[in-house]
């Protein structure tokens, strides 16, 4: 029997828990790496693609067509998102936690440094 340990929730989010980034250092690190990767390749629907993939493992066709690079990156496993995804799965019964978590993701994506291409 082949059991994939990554299929189990990594977090136990209770109904009254709030999201505080410092309580989830592995998810925070994954998000920072993801945000820096995304910042280097700006495109349409970035925030929606990231949230939708992490939360539902699905993307709208319109988003994928408008931003194929990011859609492929999110779905091909090249970005490590195990902890980010697990936080969404674990917080399904806590809408306040999920809302705060989504707001945090959006703020990190918005503040990621933009990579500069080229040389002097």
Structure explained in plain terms:
With about 120 residues, the protein is mainly α. The chain has one domain (about 25-110). The protein contains 6 helices and no strands. The protein has helices spanning about 25-40, 45-55, 60-65, 70-75, 80-90, 95-110. The model is unreliable at about 1-5 (pLDDT under 50).
List keywords for this structure.
120 residues, globular, mainly alpha
- What is the count of structural domains? 1
Q: Distance between the terminal alpha carbons, to the nearest Å? A: 56 Å
Low-confidence stretches: 1-6
How many separate helices?
A: 6
Mean pLDDT: 88
* Total E-strand runs: 0
Helix content: 55-70%
The oligomeric status of these chains comes to: single chain
What percent of residues are in strands? under 5%
String of helices and strands: HHHHHH
SSE-based structural type: mainly alpha
How are the secondary structure elements laid out?
Blueprint: H1 25-39, H2 46-56, H3 61-66, H4 68-75, H5 82-90, H6 95-111
Helix pairs in contact: 1-5, 1-6, 2-4
Give a short synopsis of this structure:
This protein has helices at 25-39, 46-56, 61-66, 68-75, 82-90, 95-111. The chain is globular.
């Amino acid at each position: 029997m082949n059991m994939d340990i990554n299929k189990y929730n990594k977090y136990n989010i209770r109904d009254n828990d709030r999201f505080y980034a410092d309580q989830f250092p592995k998810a925070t690190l994954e998000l920072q790496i993801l945000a820096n990767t995304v910042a280097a390749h700006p495109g349409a629907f970035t925030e929606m693609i990231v949230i939708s993939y992490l939360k539902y493992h699905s993307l709208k066709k319109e988003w994928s067509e408008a931003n194929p690079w990011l859609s492929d990156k999110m779905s091909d496993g090249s970005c490590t998102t195990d902890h980010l995804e697990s936080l969404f799965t674990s917080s399904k019964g806590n809408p306040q936690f999920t809302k705060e978590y989504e707001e945090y993701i959006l703020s990190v994506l918005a503040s990621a440094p933009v990579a500069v291409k080229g040389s002097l």
